[in-house]
Design a protein that fits this description.
globular; five-stranded parallel beta sheet; two-stranded parallel sheet; about 55% helix; alpha/beta; 7 strands; single chain
Length: about 300
């Protein structure tokens, strides 16, 4: 009689369902990203089943590339991916170590190798997330030490792939150039996931969710104002999707606090927890247009 295994039972026993359900519940939109994560989970589950039946011995390549604009959820998904890989038995700890070039590359001879190796030591057994990875490579500067960090990373990605998963992240166009200049990375990365920008309705839902998480509510007027803000802001320079919405709502909270304090007197709990339209419409986005946004994330 041939060996058999119940994949659904394996899935339930692994705890992977909890991670995938959290992915759906906690992240708005990102349908293609969620689909790729579910496909990856299925692949790993089947690989795990094959190994349990003695059909496969080599650990699959799990290094990944996340491309997309800022504020599209790349770091959050990387955190969830670490949990998923841990539940399925592909990393020992399931923790995420998030770094940038400055955490890996030194400023003088002999400084880069120990910095990079220390980061890798912390990340072993989990996931190393390198944001804006293309900054590691600066071909226009012959005295730059990024290449040393790259060589160490490539070696560890190959030799320790059963104990570490590396995720490289950044803008899609810059990452493409980076991979063309460093083919060693491209050959070691099997999973490329592109993160789309959020739509206006999705950003509005994200904003409302951010407020709810802090026990705030948006009045009906504030919801309408936020929708107008999003429509104006997302076509301006330096828009960072959910990150920009979070910044805008942080400033709305600041205005709300000043509005309430300036009026003085007794304040009801409902007023303390409600963002009004005026708290949002005071933003320069409604009054200054593109010019103010060029100075940074619009207030």
């Amino acid at each position: 009689m041939s060996q058999m295994i119940d994949l659904q039972a394996e899935f339930e026993a692994s705890g992977a369902r909890e991670v995938l359900e959290a992915l759906d519940a906690e992240l708005i939109g990102l349908a293609p990203v969620k689909a790729r994560i579910r496909e990856t989970a299925a692949l790993l589950l089947v690989d795990r089943a094959r190994r349990s039946l003695g059909l496969a011995a080599q650990t699959p390549t799990l290094h990944m590339s996340f491309t997309g604009n800022p504020g599209t959820g790349k770091t959050t998904v990387a955190q969830m991916m670490a949990g998923l890989l841990h539940r399925l038995g592909y990393v020992r700890k399931g923790h995420l170590v998030s770094v940038t070039r400055d955490d890996l590359v030194g400023q003088y001879i002999g400084h880069t190798a120990p910095k990079t190796k220390e980061v890798l030591k912390r990340a072993m057994g989990g996931v190393l997330f390198i944001d804006e990875a293309y900054y590691l490579y600066r071909p226009d500067n012959e005295r730059d030490y990024g290449q040393e960090a790259i060589e160490i990373l490539l070696q560890v990605m190959e030799n320790n792939r059963d104990d570490l998963v590396v995720i490289l992240a950044g803008y899609a166009d810059r990452m493409a150039l980076f991979y063309n200049s460093n083919p060693g990375f491209r050959s070691r990365i099997a999973h490329h996931i592109d993160f789309p920008d959020y739509g206006e309705d999705e950003l509005a839902r994200i904003g409302e969710g951010m407020m709810e998480a802090q026990n705030y509510v948006l009045s009906e007027g504030a919801k309408a104002a936020l929708a107008e803000y999003i429509a104006l802001r997302r076509v301006q320079p330096q828009f960072a999707n959910a990150r920009s919405i979070r910044n805008a709502l942080d400033r709305a909270r600041l205005r709300q606090a000043n509005r309430l304090f300036s009026r003085g007197g007794v304040v009801e709990a409902a007023a303390l927890s409600t963002i009004e339209a005026e708290d949002i419409r005071a933003s320069r986005v409604f009054h200054g247009g593109l010019e103010t946004a060029r100075k940074g994330d619009a207030a």
